[in-house]
From TrEMBL, chains A, B:
SUPFAM superfamilies: Nicotinate/Quinolinate PRTase C-terminal domain-like (SSF51690), Nicotinate/Quinolinate PRTase N-terminal domain-like (SSF54675)
Post-translation changes: Transiently phosphorylated on a His residue during the reaction cycle. Phosphorylation strongly increases the affinity for substrates and increases the rate of nicotinate D-ribonucleotide production. Dephosphorylation regenerates the low-affinity form of the enzyme, leading to product release.
PANTHER family according to UniProt: NICOTINATE PHOSPHORIBOSYLTRANSFERASE (PTHR11098:SF1)
Reaction(s) the record says it catalyses: 5-phospho-alpha-D-ribose 1-diphosphate + nicotinate + ATP + H2O = nicotinate beta-D-ribonucleotide + ADP + phosphate + diphosphate
Record function comment: Catalyzes the first step in the biosynthesis of NAD from nicotinic acid, the ATP-dependent synthesis of beta-nicotinate D-ribonucleotide from nicotinate and 5-phospho-D-ribose 1-phosphate.
One GO location term (cellular component): cytosol
Protein name: Nicotinate phosphoribosyltransferase
Pathway recorded for this protein: Cofactor biosynthesis; NAD(+) biosynthesis; nicotinate D-ribonucleotide from nicotinate: step 1/1
EC number: 6.3.4.21
Enzyme class per UniProt: ligase
Keywords: Glycosyltransferase, Ligase, Phosphoprotein, Pyridine nucleotide biosynthesis, Transferase
Every Nicotinate phosphoribosyltransferase N-terminal domain range: 9-131
Family: Belongs to the NAPRTase family.
Length: 440, 440
């Protein structure tokens, strides 16, 4: 597909019709929207905020191109004066957000946009689209990192992610969450993520024999020999590797590891380990892949399977047990007045808010407080930080490596008990009750 | 994110290291790969092939850019002669595929690539990435079309799809499957899909009263007035709409419909219908959204809820019950010899194959036969058709509208019994057994 990842038309039609209405009415006061997740899906104790960098890039470069304006004009739904106004449309608002990699909980704003209402409104769809998905994947991938400490974890999921951008963002989110790298080449080029690879069954099958395939591959990639051994018979292939290793060693080529991709991985890993060890090849590692997720990793390691690393793909990159979060972006204030949606099951906490994290004496998370920005700040570390003012970035640039370290540091401070307590400040509760008494 | 949707580096690292090895070994014979899905996920009786158009665009334009080659050179893993070879790398192979919109079943090849092995190998990752996701969504979305015949169905899912490309491809796959349109503006511009929209809660909240919001919006978009009525109190808002409608009618503005987005949709729809009807507003339709999927649609309609259309989003666009398929692309022949992977649980049917669909006397699907391409063709309609020869498209261009009609026509011929029978021809079974006896 040709490019559209930066297109302003990656939005919902109603954003444009609402913009036309705001334009017609002359409604241009400041709106405050906040982005949050309403609830934790089953199997998640916390979530990880991700995707802010892509969001900031999007709002910085947001423009209607002449081609897009022509197309919109051709829909005969917008007035010429409004289309003229779109021609010069820019995002000039403020954004405050939790830094990428921050652990968060339901109903905590992770991002606040303060801007003239049309600007804050238009970006809603793509804002959620960018922040939601990386948050979904990082919050799943971190569970693999927690399940397999000290093991190499590589994102193998590109092919079954939901499109090209999904593949890139999944690689980024997995690395943020603690993976060692990805197989997706473009993610390496784009984000500087370490790239790993092995070989495919097709490579083995294209050769007359497995040994020939192994030997040719090792000669071609002598610095990174990972041999896939489950194409025909895993243990038979392991014996071939054990016999080949000394021969390659004489040529100065070391086999790094073998990969298992099917069958009972724990049983195969044990059998292969025994074969390699018996041949004096303790240095060859065992790398596993195939339908893995945090539960499978935990089972394999609990069973004592001698596995050194994992290629984790589809199940994490699609977050298959919870492929979406109830992630929303809601108007909390307009023209200086707090606003509250009261729809059944979807009521929001009104006003501009801040999240304060309180730590226990041992340094672990104790609880969070969601409070109004303008009330006397409660104890705790404020989590939302300014990152954009009047459309310009503020604060020091944050690298992906720094965000990854931020995740790792918080994982050492995870609370010992669950569920985690998130308090709503009394002033915020009062404001909500007060708004509920108003007529609309 | 800046563009990368056409990048050749949207691939796995091992494709490049295998290409280097093929290059070193002088392996350039013709390979035949086929793409298929190993099994139906729960809750699917059939799948719908989709994404072929995007795949053909990708292979037609596949190039290594100077920037990409520089980056690869900087990884110090590839030899200069190989990088030179990549500079002129093009896809010059053949592709045969089921036309988009074709219903298919497990283990049936939906696409065959015949090309020098490096070309067929390199495209694997992005090929699956492009074909898999649209197939996932079309196969889910068609269930909504079947559950709600005659109702307007609009894709509302962009914001929670897995990235921008996912949003566009989901909109396309839903339309292919039978939806009436999408809310995603770029999908309208790109694919010519009809675009629909309503209004958001934020629009209502930004106004002092609901009536003011409704009236302003109607004036601004007089040709397409859909009013969202669940921001505060659904039935109260319905009464306001009933009172507003005659006033707007005097100005020549007709309210098209109201939208419900929360609570017990069936109960609210009934109450709202009664309020509108009592006010003589039988012409105002009821449109519903909010966490819908085929099961919810079926329940609402079975309960007789007076709903005229649905905005279906997240649950279908992420295919939340089965967000991925076991979709693979496997080497079936190299240098004129059939190949077969034998990994536990992942064995493949070898050789170049064709799928034949056999119909019953009443025109319905009866069963399919998977056979070798070079055996005497069994009865039935061959489903894979040539679409590319030596890198050039062949055959008439197929429009998205034609593919959508193709889906609709097949839905009228769905088999009455399940599971559907897919036969493997005796010659194909013989070939597989013969390969299993070979040593590797």
């Amino acid at each position: 597909m040709s490019d559209s990842s930066g297109s302003v038309l990656l939005t919902d039609w109603y954003q444009l019709t609402m913009l036309q209405a705001y334009f017609d009415e002359g409604m241009a006061e400041t709106a405050v929207f906040e982005c949050f997740v309403r609830s934790l899906p089953p199997g998640r104790d916390f979530l990880i905020a991700a995707g802010l960098e892509q969001l900031l890039q999007y709002v910085e470069t947001l423009r209607f191109t002449p081609l897009e304006l022509d197309w919109l004009a051709g829909q005969h739904r917008f007035k010429p004066a409004f289309l003229d106004y779109l021609r010069d449309f820019r995002f000039c608002g403020d954004i405050d957000a939790m830094p990428e990699g921050t652990l968060f909980y339901p109903n905590e704003p992770i991002l606040r946009v303060t801007a003239p209402i049309a600007q804050a409104q238009l970006i809603e769809s793509r804002l959620i689209n960018l922040v939601h998905f990386q948050t979904v994947v990082a919050s799943k991938a971190v569970r693999c990192a927690l399940a397999a400490p000290g093991k190499r974890l590589v994102d193998f999921g590109f092919r079954r992610t939901h499109g090209g951008e999904a593949g890139l963002m999944a690689a980024r989110a997995c690395y943020l969450a603690g993976y060692d790298g990805t197989a997706t080449v473009q993610a390496g080029m784009r984000f500087g993520i370490p790239v790993f690879g092995t070989m495919a069954h097709s490579y083995v099958e294209a050769h007359a024999t497995e040994v020939e395939a192994f030997e040719h591959f090792a000669r071609s990639q002598p610095d990174n020999v990972v041999l896939l051994i489950d194409t025909y018979d895993t243990e038979a292939a392991a014996r071939k590797v054990a016999a080949l290793a000394p021969r390659l060693a004489q040529q100065g080529i070391r086999i790094g590891s073998v990969r298992l991709d099917s069958g009972d991985l724990a049983a195969h890993a044990r059998a292969v380990r025994a074969i390699l060890d018996a041949a004096g090849q303790q240095g060859i590692g065992i790398f596993c892949s195939g339908n893995l997720d945090e539960d499978e990793l935990r089972c394999l390691l609990a069973a004592g399977a001698p596995i050194d690393g994992f290629g984790v793909g589809t199940r994490v990159d699609t977050a298959c047990d919870s492929p979406y979060l109830d992630c929303v972006y809601k108007l909390q204030e307009y023209a200086g007045t707090a606003r509250r949606k009261r729809s059944t099951g979807k009521a929001t906490w009104p006003g501009r808010k801040q999240v304060y994290r309180c730590y226990a004496a041992d340094g672990r998370f104790d609880h969070d407080v969601v409070a109004l920005l303008d009330e006397p700040p409660p104890a705790g570390e404020p989590l939302l930080q300014s990152c954009m003012r009047q459309g310009q970035r503020v604060g020091a640039a944050v690298t992906l490596a720094q965000s990854r370290d931020h995740v790792a540091a918080q994982l050492r401070r995870l609370p010992a008990t669950r569920p985690y307590r998130v308090e709503i400040s009394p002033a915020l509760q009062d404001l909500a009750q007060q708004l509920d008494r108003e007529e609309h």
